[in-house]
Amino acid sequence: xxxxxxxxxxxxxxxxxxxxxxxxxxxxxxxxxxxxxxxxxxxxxxxxxxxxxxxxxxxxxxxxxxxxxxxxxxxxxxxxxxxxxxxxxxxxxxxxxxxxxxxxxxxxxxxxxxxxxxxxxxxxxxxxxxxxxxxxxxxxxxxxxxxxxxxxxxxxxxxxxxxxxxxxxxxxxxxxxxxxxxxxxxxxxxxxxxxxxxxxxxxxxxxxxxxxxxxxxxxxxxxxxxxxxxxxxxxxxxxxxxxxxxxxxxxxxxxxxxxxxxxxxxxxxxxxxxxxxxxxxxxxxxxxxxxxxxxxxxxxx
Amino acid sequence: xxxxxxxxxxxxxxxxxxxxxxxxxxxxxxxxxxxxxxxxxxxxxxxxxxxxxxxxxxxxxxxxxxxxxxxxxxxxxxxxxxxxxxxxxxxxxxxxxxxxxxxxxxxxxxxxxxxxxxxxxxxxxxxxxxxxxxxxxxxxxxxxxxxxxxxxxxxxxxxxxxxxxxxxxxxxxxxxxxxxxxxxxxxxxxxxxxxxxxxxxxxxxxxxxxxxxxxxxxxxxxxxxxxxxxxxxxxxxxxxxxxxxxxxxxxxxxxxxxxxxxxxxxxxxxxxxxxxxxxxxxxxxxxxxxxxxxxxxxxxxxxxxxxxxxxxxxxxxxxxxxxxxxxxxxxxxxxxxxxxxxxxxxxxxxxxxxxxxxxxxxxxxxxxxxxxxxxxxxxxxxxxxxxxxxxxxxxxxxxxxxxxxxxxxxxxxxxxxxxxxxxxxxxxxxxxxxxxxxxxxxxxxxxxxxxxxxxxxxxxxxxxxxxxxxxxxxxxxxxxxxxxxxxxxx
Lengths: 301, 490
Prior knowledge:
The structure holds 2 protein chains of 2 kinds. In chain A, 18% of the residues lie in helices and 38% in strands. Chain A is of the alpha+beta class. Chain A has 2 domains: 2-82 and 271-294, Immunoglobulin-like, CATH 2.60.40; 95-254, C8orf32 fold (Roll). In chain A, the strands form 4 sheets. In chain A, strands 1, 2, 3, 4, 5, 15 and 16 form a 7-stranded antiparallel beta sheet that branches. In chain A, strand 8, helix 4 and strand 9 form a beta-alpha-beta unit. The mean pLDDT of chain A is 93. In chain B, helix 11 links the parallel strand 6 (236-239) and strand 7 (261-263). A 5-stranded mixed beta sheet of chain B has the order 3-23-22-19-18. In chain B, strands 13-5-4-20-21 form a 5-stranded mixed beta sheet, with helices on both faces. A 4-stranded parallel beta sheet of chain B has the order 7-6-11-12, covered by helices on one side. Helix content of chain B is 33%, strand content 23%.
């Protein structure tokens, strides 16, 4: 499917600043299942953005405005084509061969270990019991896909998806108390579980088809769609398939309505905006608007 | 992971019963006479009388005080106390033959560790070949995945290293740790020599001692070699975290000696992937940054976002090849104390050579057998946090209390990757002139290695002395002193 993405960011300071450096991760990935047709980034006050790949292979842009200013804005416009219409299009391996497939992949590409070993506040080693429910353990002989589906159900038992929530938690313990969280929160929980099983799992930020932001069937007529935001989900190295996206918020496998932007160990590796400047240190006001438009109206297969 | 040690139970018995008497003595041979290379000095002291040493020691202290040679001690309660650099006037002497071996061993080690860093941050062949477990790298605090695939100028990561050597009970030199991040102490090595030469010229008259004072010139040459615009165009700065850093004295010393700018993060700015120094004449392009700011604080866009000590954009400039960073960010993974245990294997793997310098036997706390053994024998172990330095985060088994040991058991079980253990090695001893008496104290040696257009080991180093009787902790931050270190020319 083809999409146009328009991202508009504004940073407004209460007092003037200078030496303002920004690093952004908003441009779609390019690989076998997704290609970039057009990409444009405009900055005001004028600055020359430089594109580069970071240590995870994400396309990041950076630019700096050295002179004194109070407002900085940028607009990223991209056109992208996604191809993964059927996320199940891979040969299913016998469960007895799945572990060997994973170990072989880790052996060929040791960088994948980062997505097995990493633990942090957002993706800690999970306790055996959460809210008095046992944390699922890996079951020998059961296919990975089936176990991930069970994991989805478990994640929802721990915390429900709260689409309106603005802030993600800073550590998972808080999520266990709150019983509901953002897509990023649920994704971290899923990743923590899968890493505990020894599966390579990584955090993804990206865009979603605008349809996902429409009110659901039970909402009263005339409910406006939710404002579009970056979405977050997990990718798991699935035996026989490679990286596949799993969206715990909606309980789905990511297909061609998901547009990947950046991957990392957790949310801190994929920050859409990192910036720093010299000034009084007063926090700026941030505004962001996102619009994802489908360019071809062919329905998903 | 400790193969070397488990096979030889004798070593454990030895360290159990070993008192300070078992330690190798640098100065005295077995018949209680000075060793051959100390005799000219000894004869001189005997000829002039020991009282002379008292006057000289006082003079040395005054000289260091006047010169402002100080260091800072941190403790839990205080912000930091500045002290005059503690210096013992009796030099430590290393023979030419010993040095030849040490120099070859250190060069070999640094060459291998640089190949290791290049590999870890690129193809990771050593992980694919199963020589080093990926867990050590990916659970290592100082592995910086943010710099994957960056090519530093000339593929050099550790331009400046300070390798800590000790001598075991048999007098064998062993590597205790590799300091590859921002090793300090080189200014003290030079100051010690300047003071020693001034106070005791008569000692020097009896020996051919190799020079160390040219270290800043060697360093400057290496830094110029790294300049992306060529050595003639090079603008070099020493980047310091500022006056509150314990090694600030050294930062100013090196900048002054090399005739380059001393800058703090706020004095530098990046634009279009280039680094500039703010001067009264405007921005001046910088080619080489000898940074004494830790990785975490170096670039708020890449590492810790709350850092105000670094330079935003400097990693991108480095990635673009427009600036050399000395040492390269990410070098710390190669001096991680858990990776240290693998250095002999790393040398064999990249160079196909047998290691010239051996390690101190090391237990990995991630290994169940090792861990069980260490937890049963804590009184005989030194337990170290893998990513700490300066003697912080360490348990000295023989001197520990039950409460301290219990605390370490808890810490180790919580995060085994974060700890290693080594049997207590009785560091070699040397005579020191302390309060009017000649007393023996334990010491180590930190030679400095510069990697530019080739690897150079400065003939000498910083000899650190544990001034407390019987103590094995030599870190200046923990009450250690120092000696001038002489390497003989022949």
